[in-house]
């Protein structure tokens, strides 16, 4: 029987003295070629496809630069003092002794975590205090699996530096066994992958912008004020379900934002239809009626009741799971009423909570908002578990610079929920 290796493809040989240098040259040449193509490309920064292509080029260059640094390390050996910003300065190591509860960190790890190299390394029990609260369960599970079941660690989490900046860290580790086969310590390598993940998110977000479905047809008839309203930066998303009726998408949810009365007050509303609508006219007529009542200056609780009465005497679908909010920009006062629907979600300072849906004496509840607050209204299609997940996104949402960035995160998270019904979300950011 002849060998499966042909004469044109000899068996791999151990790398020779110049092979690593040749790989470095190839990597640098490829990086230069990619950079040249990127600079010569005629992509339009205002075009979604152009932004997606630019993000892919940037990600490829980032990874090629890391490859170059890895190969250079193979050639030169460990550097005694990696220069700031280099790949080696973004990789650190640690070992935690389980018998003495002592820890040893490399100088690079201190820099990654933003801590003074002269300070005492944190023990394994203290280390989670550096980790973002919502990522701590993940880290605890990885460490427990490593120490109890001897499983290697391979995962990511976010750490908060003393200056409040957040960095994403990739951790790989394994248990160190003593002569009796018991776990004596845990050794790990941690790499700061913040820039790499940022590049990957840019590719994902620009790709999503190419796939984003068109807005619901009623928004073409009654344009949503994407420029915002006084005191508010606004954005919304309609997430179609996984199923269709005939050739048309079913519409179970709706949203709107419009003037409330003749001054600068704004009505924000989100709700479900009592029955699925397969035509644009039903939702458009409902939102038209909603805007007419809002322009008459009806307060949220009264508007809710009048709209319900109007729908009962018409052929329009009934409204379920709706919430109606009025926002006054001069006092930043939010008043809201609901119709068997979920209350608004408020995100402030890295935390999120649901506002109470209990009605006050006037039939509506009130709260005072602050500049930078994010208010999220959503349809009843999102169950309690999904709402809890949205609240856990508070650090990411409050770190965004616009309502559009925040609603993009929410839409991406909700898009991964299997079996989700047609849903709508509306995000309002209180501007200074």
TrEMBL record:
Q: Where is this region: Disordered?
A: 1-20
Q: What is its EC number?
A: 2.7.13.3
Q: Which Pfam families match?
A: PAS_3 (PF08447), SpoIIE (PF07228)
For the PAC domain, which residue ranges apply? 153-205
Q: Which reaction does it catalyse?
A: ATP + protein L-histidine = ADP + protein N-phospho-L-histidine
Does Lipoprotein show up as a keyword for this record? Answer: no
Name the UniProt key words of this record, in alphabetical order.
Kinase, Phosphoprotein, Transferase
InterPro entries linked: PAC, PAS, PAS-assoc_C, PAS-like_dom_sf, PAS_fold_3, PPM-type-like_dom_sf, PPM-type_phosphatase-like_dom, Sensor_kinase/Photoreceptor
Instruction: Kindly indicate whether the keyword Phosphoprotein belongs to this entry.
Output: yes
EC supergroup of this enzyme: transferase
Name the UniProt record assigns to this protein: histidine kinase
Record organism: Streptomyces violaceorubidus
């Amino acid at each position: 029987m002849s060998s499966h290796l042909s004469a044109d493809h000899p068996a791999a040989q151990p790398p020779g003295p110049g092979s690593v240098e040749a790989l470095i040259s190839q990597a640098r040449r490829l990086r230069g070629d990619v950079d040249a193509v990127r600079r010569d490309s005629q992509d339009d920064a205002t075009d979604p496809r152009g932004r997606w292509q630019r993000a892919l080029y940037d990600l490829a260059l980032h990874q090629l630069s890391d490859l170059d640094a890895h190969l250079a390390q193979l050639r030169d050996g460990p550097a005694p003092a990696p220069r700031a910003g280099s790949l080696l300065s973004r990789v650190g190591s640690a070992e935690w002794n389980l018998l003495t509860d002592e820890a040893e960190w490399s100088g690079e790890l201190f820099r990654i975590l933003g801590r003074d190299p002269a300070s005492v390394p944190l023990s394994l029990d203290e280390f989670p205090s550096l980790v973002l609260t919502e990522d701590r369960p993940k880290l605890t599970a990885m460490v427990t699996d490593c120490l109890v079941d001897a499983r290697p660690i391979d995962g990511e989490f976010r750490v908060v530096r003393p200056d409040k900046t957040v960095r994403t860290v990739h951790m790989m580790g394994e248990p160190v066994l003593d002569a009796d086969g018991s776990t004596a310590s845990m050794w790990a390598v941690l790499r700061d992958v913040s820039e790499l993940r940022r590049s990957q998110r840019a590719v994902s977000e620009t790709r999503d912008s190419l796939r984003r479905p068109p807005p619901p047809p009623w928004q073409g008839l009654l344009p949503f004020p994407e420029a915002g309203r006084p005191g508010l930066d606004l954005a919304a998303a309609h997430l179609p379900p996984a199923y269709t009726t005939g050739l048309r998408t079913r519409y179970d949810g709706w949203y709107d934002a419009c003037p409330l009365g003749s001054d600068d007050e704004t009505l924000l509303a989100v709700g479900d239809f009592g029955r699925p609508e397969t035509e644009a006219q039903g939702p458009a007529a409902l939102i038209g009626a909603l805007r007419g009542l809002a322009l008459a200056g009806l307060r949220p609780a009264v508007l809710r009741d009048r709209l319900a009465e109007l729908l009962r005497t018409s052929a329009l679908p009934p409204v379920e799971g709706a919430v109606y909010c009025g926002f006054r920009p001069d006092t930043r006062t939010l008043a809201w009423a609901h119709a068997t629907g979920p209350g608004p979600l408020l995100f402030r300072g890295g935390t999120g909570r649901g506002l109470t849906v209990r009605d006050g004496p006037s039939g509506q509840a009130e709260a005072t908002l602050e500049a930078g607050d994010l208010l999220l209204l959503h349809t009843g299609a999102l169950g309690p578990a999904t709402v809890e997940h949205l609240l856990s996104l508070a650090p990411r949402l409050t770190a965004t610079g616009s309502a559009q960035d925040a609603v993009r995160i929410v839409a991406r998270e909700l898009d991964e929920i299997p079996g989700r019904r047609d849903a709508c979300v509306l995000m309002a950011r209180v501007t200074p």
